[in-house]
Design a protein that fits this description.
The complex is a heterodimer of chains A (443) and B (244). By secondary structure, chain A is of the alpha+beta class. Chain A has 13 helices and 21 strands. In chain A, strands 16-12-14-13-19-20-18-21 form an eight-stranded antiparallel beta sheet. Chain A has a five-stranded antiparallel beta sheet with strand order 5-6-10-8-9. The chains are: A alpha+beta (443), B alpha/beta (244). Chains A and B meet through strand 5 and helix 2 of A and helix 2 of B. Bound molecules: flavin-adenine dinucleotide and NADP nicotinamide-adenine-dinucleotide phosphate.
Chain lengths: 443, 244
């Protein structure tokens, strides 16, 4: 196994000193399984908290081969360490796209399945697992299961969104989305208030991609103002003549070389940023054709941008509330504004139905916030946790580093069923993360 | 003729990086090694990522008798052959255990000679070809902590040097590569100095560029040339007292 080093995920909290082991073939992985009592898989470490941290970390970076690509049918099969970035490089030139993508392309297929990630098209296309045709997973006794939505359906459903606790995902077969170009026809609509924003969401619900940026700091009449961003894959005739219609993104060059001093990002700069962001769109409605890279991954061009949040780190906080809990959503947002829990980009979206047993998305509104650390933050978030869980909402495990055990068991209604499946396939349970221990899912 | 490279020991981390680097330049790839399952995965990966031909061939460096058939069965003659396989072993164990010791010597030296003799003769016949041998800085001077591995690499370096001279007039080029520390399975778990440790991708890059320039002997990274020069200059009376 590898040597000890400091490891943390995207939110840079918690940080631990641990060994991280690599494997590029199955016998080596089998060796890890028989040597260690508990293991957890780790991909690109793009979850924010402790989901992929644990006593023995198995990194999938070297297990990253493409196994098959049918460019007629649009089906790709690859090992779990392949990143969405790499898939795009292979499939875009052939006229295909990833069916569901998060806000960064630097996540692995294993991580995408284990968090059952959602994208701007969740209300139309569901989460990532809906497009997984089959997967191979290795459980604690070394058995590899081939699962599909119908074969070992229970294991399939628990693995999608199961945060690595059902086993090590080895490979997956994914159905891609046909595209005519690498460009997105984008429409941006300015909404002067939250009510107006939600109304726009409704009017434009047939758009494939929709997400809104909200100004969580404005108060009074302009409370919850924002910009709704909509998108459709562009057809050939919509793209300027002469450009390569199936152009792949570039690889990023710019690094943030050090941790920004905290004062660069104080409440004032954040408020200023929010105001400017809102004002940058002069017109009520703005149409343009943009490359997918800018549309889906605006921050990917800066490596390590999480360093901007200063040494003490920040918390990413994402929850979902049922559609009929709109008043509660407003109450929560008001509380955030009132307490100046400043956030750069607060992102609001409407979800469709839930997929996996432990999948985060469910029909409702989801709000994601980046909150810089302050000493009273924990207490404040505990208060929000309570309001949201009592309102029938829940929190995204891929973005969590602090939730209380009770909150998890109260909010994930199928947690018992999940645990049953974990134990059925892993008697004695081998897979365990700091998060699953904190939440009392595993010991 | 289409450009192609045969990688002997293609499941090694340096071998995998070489496969990607050459494939990215449009070369066809022959992957040779003893882990069939992994070779097949690598071949499909290369084909899908780079749209170049890639296929897997079983090759056990220690099965000398099989080398002739292995070489004969390659459909086309690769324009470049690189010998990457190697075995580090454990110095202390190998001092006592002849089996391990022999395996170190055989893998790094005898096996390489067995296959490269065949390759070079057939390149000679064709009047064209490039042979790249991955040796090591460890072969530049025997140190107490790894002289069994080191001496096998020293023999390999000497072999490549002679081969180069023999092939030179016949338009066949031989390049010796001496990596310093590289972050691979071979060195996993060792405490290597980060500033002197290269990643496999960087090593592959250096090799590709040096091959195009027809270099004879290269160190990866360049600073190793100077480090090894200093190490070679230490008088033996002092050197024998150094425990490293
Ligand atoms: C800038 C940014 C934007 C994001 N936007 C979104 C978004 O829009 N929507 C969204 O849903 N998420 C989003 N995320 C979260 C991210 O998509 C998930 O956290 C994803 O799981 C990260 O994948 P990873 O490869 O980095 O895995 P890690 O972060 O390393 O691991 C995440 C989880 O997956 C498990 N895992 C990883 N590989 C395997 C495997 N081979 N087998 C079994 N389990 C495995 C780990 O155990 C862990 O539980 C965003 C993250 C960032 C940093
Ligand atoms: N890493 C360093 O710091 C370093 C420094 C200087 C030189 N080198 C040299 O660089 C080369 C590549 O090493 P690496 O660091 O990439 O190490 P590696 O990943 O451990 O690779 C060693 C490879 O040799 C193969 N091999 C061993 N015995 C074999 C046999 N009998 N038949 C076929 N293949 C055999 C192994 O095959 P399996 O996959 O089947 O086991 C493995 O792929 C070696 O020659 C090494 O000596 C390495």
């Amino acid at each position: 196994m590898g040597k000890r080093k400091e490891i943390s995920n995207w939110g840079r909290y918690p940080r631990i000193e641990k060994k991280e082991s690599l494997f590029d073939n199955i016998p080596v992985l089998d060796g890890f399984l028989s040597d260690a009592d508990t293991l957890i898989a780790r991909g690109m470490g793009r979850c924010y908290g402790d989901s992929s941290l644990g006593e023995n970390i198995i990194n999938t970076a070297s297990f990253n081969r493409f196994l098959a690509f049918d460019d007629k049918e649009g089906v790709i099969e690859c090992e779990s360490g392949v990143t969405l970035d790499e898939i795009l490089q292979v499939v875009v030139p052939k006229g295909w796209f990833i069916p569901v993508t998060p806000g960064t392309k630097f996540v692995t297929v294993g991580g995408a399945i284990a968090s059952d990630i959602h994208g701007k098209n969740h209300h139309i296309d569901g989460s990532f697992s809906r497009h997984v045709l089959s997967l191979q997973i290795k459980c604690s006794d070394g058995t590899t299961y081939h699962c599909t939505p119908t074969d070992h359906a229970d294991l399939f459903s628990a693995t999608c969104g199961g945060m690595g606790l059902t086993g090590i995902i080895l490979s997956a077969k994914i159905r891609l989305k046909k595209i005519a170009t690498a460009y997105i026809r984008q429409k941006q609509l300015k909404a002067p208030s939250l009510d107006k924003l939600l109304e726009l969401f409704n009017i434009y619900q047939d758009y494939t991609y929709s997400v809104a940026w909200v100004d969580c700091l404005s108060k009074g009449k302009s409370f919850g103002r924002g910009i709704l961003m909509l998108g459709e894959h562009a057809e050939e005739q919509e793209v300027k003549p002469g450009v390569d219609t199936l152009k792949v993104h570039k690889t990023p060059k710019f690094n943030i070389p050090f941790n920004f001093p905290s004062l660069v990002l104080n409440k004032l700069t954040i408020r200023l940023f929010n105001t400017l962001y809102y004002l940058k769109n002069l017109r009520e409605e703005q149409d343009s054709v943009v490359h997918y890279d800018g549309f889906f991954y605006p921050l990917d061009n800066i490596n390590n941008w999480n360093r901007m949040y200063g040494k003490r780190g920040f918390f990413q906080y994402q929850f979902v509330l049922p559609l009929d809990k709109l008043d509660l959503l407003k109450e929560v947002m008001l509380l955030i504004a009132k307490n100046n829990k400043a956030s750069f980009l607060s992102v609001l979206k409407v979800f469709g139905e839930q997929d996996g047993v432990l999948s985060f998305p469910m029909k409702g509104y989801t709000l994601a916030l980046d909150i810089p650390y302050d000493p009273h933050l924990d207490q404040f978030l505990d208060q929000l946790d309570l309001m949201i869980s009592e309102g029938g909402g829940r929190f995204y495990l891929a973005k969590d580093a602090r939730m209380k055990k009770e909150t998890f068991w109260q909010t994930y209604q199928q947690a018992d069923k999940f645990l049953e499946i974990v134990n059925k396939y892993n008697p004695g349970s081998s897979f365990s993360s700091l998060q699953s221990q904190r939440l009392g899912i595993t010991s | 003729m289409k450009k192609s490279i045969l990688i002997l020991g293609a499941t090694s981390d340096i071998g995998k990086a070489l496969a990607k680097r050459y494939a990215a330049e449009g070369w066809g790839i022959f992957l040779a090694g003893r882990d069939r399952d992994q070779l097949d995965r690598l071949a499909s990966d290369i084909k899908i990522r780079y749209n170049v031909p890639a296929d897997a061939h079983y090759f056990d460096a220690l099965a000398y008798d099989s080398h002739k058939d292995f070489w004969k069965n390659l459909q086309d003659l690769p324009s470049v052959t690189v010998s990457v396989f190697g075995y580090l072993g454990e110095q202390e164990t190998a001092e006592e255990d002849w089996e391990m010791c022999q395996r170190i010597l055989d893998t790094n030296y005898t096996a390489a000679v067995s296959i490269l003799n065949l390759v070079s003769n057939s390149y000679l016949e064709r009047g064209q070809g490039v042979i790249i041998g991955i040796s090591s800085v460890a072969g530049d001077r025997g140190r107490s902590s790894n002289y069994l591995y080191g001496s096998s690499k020293a023999a390999f370096t000497a072999y490549l040097s002679g081969l180069r001279a023999r092939m030179f007039a016949k338009n066949v080029h031989v390049m010796t590569v001496k990596p310093g520390f590289v972050m691979t399975k071979m060195t996993a778990g060792m405490d290597l100095p980060p500033l002197l440790t290269a990643k496999p991708g960087a090593v592959a890059n250096v090799i590709f560029k040096a091959m195009k320039k027809k270099k004879n002997v290269i160190y990866v990274e360049g600073k190793w040339r100077w480090i090894m020069l200093i190490i070679k200059l230490i008088p033996e009376t002092i050197f024998k007292r150094l425990k490293f």
